[in-house]
Each structure stands twice: as C-alpha cells, then as structure tokens.
Amino acid sequence: MIAPSLIPKKAGDRVKTDRRDAEKLARCYRAGELTAVWVPDEAHEALRDLVRAREAAKKDQLRHRHRLGKFLLRHGKRPTDAGEAWTQKYVNWIRIHVRFDQPALDATLAHYLEEVAHIAERIAKLEQAIDEAVAQRLRNSRGDRSLAGIARGGANDRRHCGL
Fold first, then answer.
1. Which ranges constitute the DSSP H helices of the chain?
2. What's phi and psi for 16, nearest 5 deg?
3. What pTM was computed for the model?
4. Which of 65, 90, 139, 159 is deepest in the core (most CB within 10 A)?
C-alpha cells in the first residue's frame, strides 16, 4: 500500500486523469520512489487507542496536580519537609498537615485530593490494560520478539503489510 501524500509531485502538475496517474505511479514504482506504508489491523488500532487514552489521562493528571498545587499556593500552604512534589510523602503531608479555618476550603482540598487519587487509579488501570494487550501481542507474534514484531503483531514478511 502506498500513501498518497508520499507520492512525489512536480510543481505545476495539476492535470489529473486516471491514465496520467497510472503512468506516473508506474514510473515512480520503477524508479523506486514510492514509499510503502503499513496499514494497522484492528488489534493494533485498539492498542493505539489504549495508549492514546493513557496519554490523555496523564495530561489530566498534570492538570489536576497543577490545580491542587495552585490552590495550596493561593492559600499560603507550602511544604517544608514534604520531599519532592507528588511523591507519597508529599501527598501524605497535604492530607495530614494542610487544614483551613473555612469548611469550604477543606471541602475544596478534599475534592482536589480525590481527583488526584482518581486519575492515578485511572492511569494504573490503563497501564495494566496496555501491559495485557502487549503480552497478548507477544503471544501472537509468531516468534518475533522484537519491538517491531510486537507492533506488527507478527507480520514478519511483506505480504502481511499489503505489498
């Protein structure tokens, strides 16, 4: 399979007919100028969607952490001995040492902490699902244990790539 966007084009060559296109493709093929592409199967696309979901969850995690961090800074709550940000020690410091005079602020803090914990659980579940999907691809890779073999799902020769 050849990607249309990777077919070389001359500037000003705008006349398009099936005959001209066929001749151009034949010339490019003979000259070795066409770039083959691999069309992923359904299982590979499903794995890619799972990875995209994890990436989105990681972005959400960053947003929620920033939101909580800015909330703490707005109210003058700065850790002194909590260690690196977002370690278990840091989160425990927030849970134990951060208190407010206003119940509404305590409720807001609790909400932000729940969101950070929830997104961490989501990421863990997605990572587990990715690990299981990759293990399945490894089992189906027909002996090809390379990363490329996993990505192809065992397509070890050109005929599986649509060429």
1. 18-31, 42-74, 88-97, 103-139, 147-152
2. -120, 120
3. 0.67
4. 65
At 124, which amino acid appears?
A: A
Separation between Cα atoms, residue 34 and residue 162, nearest integer Å:
14
Which position has the token pair 């990505």?
151
Partner residues linked to 2 by β-bridges: 36
What token pair was written down for 113? 């902490």
Listed residue (1, 87, 4) closest to 41, CA to CA: 1
pLDDT in 10s for each residue of the chain, 163 residues: 666 666 667 766 666 777 877 888 888 878 877 777 778 888 889 999 999 999 999 999 999 999 999 999 999 998 878 778 899 999 999 999 999 999 999 999 999 999 999 999 999 999 999 999 988 888 876 655 555 555 555 444 433 333 2
For residue 85, the SS3 value is: coil
Residue 23: which residues within 8 A CB-CB, separation 6 or more? Answer: none
CA angle 125, 55, 150 (to 5 degrees): 75
Rounded to whole angstroms, the Cα distance separating 60 from 65 reads 9
d(CA 46, CA 142): 20
| Length of the chain in terms of residues written | 163
Give me 57's structure tokens: 């969850």
